[in-house]
Design goal:
Helix 1 runs antiparallel to helix 2. It contains 2 helices and 2 strands. The protein has a domain of 61 residues. A two-stranded antiparallel ribbon has the order 1-2. GO terms for molecular function: unfolded protein binding. It comes from Acanthochromis polyacanthus (spiny chromis).
Length: 135
């Protein structure tokens, strides 16, 4: 009666060095930072959509002599339709640049995480879970 084993049954005992712990901590910090950046990107994209909607509504307005209140900080300042449209376009461009910068940072973090995953999985195999929980 010969029993065949398909893969390791018991969890291997792998020694975790200080360097390994540093890599695991770096992975956790970068994962957390990436989540924060993605949330910030979503918030900015929502704001960008709001600016686009305001710009579209402003274009549909047929009364050019109407002064449009535009919020700057906590204050609303009235501007002509053309000035307000220019301010909306400038705000949209600024936001688009911010989103692009954030997306580049997320991409860089994903590269670091990919490298760390390779190193950590190479040492620990199935004894470590580096996949994000989708909850």
């Amino acid at each position: 009666m010969a029993a065949t084993m398909k893969g390791p049954v018991a969890v291997e005992d792998v020694n975790v060095t200080f360097e390994d712990q540093q890599k695991i901590n770096k992975f956790a910090r970068n994962t957390s930072r990436m989540t924060e950046l993605k949330n910030e990107i979503e918030a900015k994209k929502k704001l960008l959509q709001n600016l686009q909607d305001a710009s579209d509504d402003l274009m549909m307005s047929d009364d050019d002599s109407l002064l449009i209140p535009y919020q700057i900080g906590d204050v609303f300042i009235s501007h002509t339709q053309e000035e307000t449209q220019e301010m909306l376009e400038a705000a949209k461009e600024t936001l688009e640049q911010e989103v692009k910068g954030l997306e580049e940072r997320v991409s860089a973090i994903q590269q670091v995480l990919g490298d760390l995953k390779v190193q950590l999985y190479a040492k620990f195999g199935n004894n470590i879970n580096l996949e994000a929980d989708e909850s």
